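[audit] Reproducing an earlier prediction to check determinism. Same input, same settings, fresh worker. If the C-alpha cells differ from the archived copy the diff job will pick it up downstream; this log only records the rerun itself.
[audit] input (281 residues):
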Amino acid sequence: MKISKVGFVGLGAMGSVMSPLLVKAGYQVFGYDIIANIDESSGVKQLDTLDDFAQFDAVIFMLPNSKIVSEVVTKLLEINIKSILIDMSSSDPRETKKLGKIIEAEGLKFLDAPVSGGVSRAKTGDLMIMAGGDEEDILEVNDLLSIMGTVQYAGPLGSGHAIKALNNYVSAAGLIASFEALTTARSFGIKPENFLKIINGATGKNNTTEVKLDKFVVSEKFNSGFALDLMVKDVSIAHSLIKDLSSDNPLSNDVRNYLSKSLDLLGGNPDHTEVYKVIKK
C-alpha cells in the first residue's frame, strides 16, 4: 500500500513540529486538534472535524492519554475509516491491547509507536520511535515513521507503549538522583560547572546530567518542553507494570510518589525540570 495522505490528530508541542516534517518529505498532511492551531506555513492543512478523515491512508495520534485516543478511534470507526492507525502518544499498553482488539475486529491495522527525545529532537526528525505491532505492518509504515526518527521494533502490540513508560521511569529515577546530587554538591561548596565536568566524565553521567542540568536547571530556565504531569503519568504506568510483572519493585513507587508530590507543591503546569526547585528547598 502506498501512503500519500496522512491524518495527524494532536497538534500540540510534539505534533506541531512532527507533522510538518511529513509535508517536507512529500506527504499530504491533514491535522486536527480541538485546541491547538498550526501555522499555515507548516504546510499542514488543519481540518475542523474528524468527519473529513475517512479517505486517508494512515492516521497518526499524538494525544495526552489512552482515553482520548480511544475516544478519537471510536469516532473514526463510526465514519468507516480504512486507514492504518498509528498511536504515537504515551498511552497505557494494556489499554492499547484492548483497543487493538476492537480495531482488529473492524479489519484495520493498528500500531503503537511512541517516541522519546522531546521537542528539540522532534523538530529535527531525530526521535527514538518504539514500534509495537505486527512486524509486516510496521515495515509498511517504516518510510513514513522514519521521517520523524529512528524506528526500533519493540515487540507485539502495546510493547512500544510499555517500553516508553519504562524508559521514562528510568529517566525520572536518574533525574531525581541527579538533582539530589547537584543540590548536595552545591551545599558542600562544589561549583555546578565542576560538578558537571566530573559527573559527565565519570560513571554517574546520565541523560539529566548530560542534557538537562546545564541547559535547564543551572541556568534556571526550566523550559525543557516536557511537562511534569506527563512524566507523572508515564511513571505511574511504569510502576503499575512493574508491580504486576516484576517480583519486586524497590524504587518505582518512591519515584512516582516524589514526582506526584512535586507536582502538587509546584502547582500550575510546571516543566519536569522544576522538580529541582522542590529538592533544593
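[audit] rerun output stored. Observation attached for the diff report: The CA atoms of residues 21 and 147 lie 7 Å apart.
[audit] end
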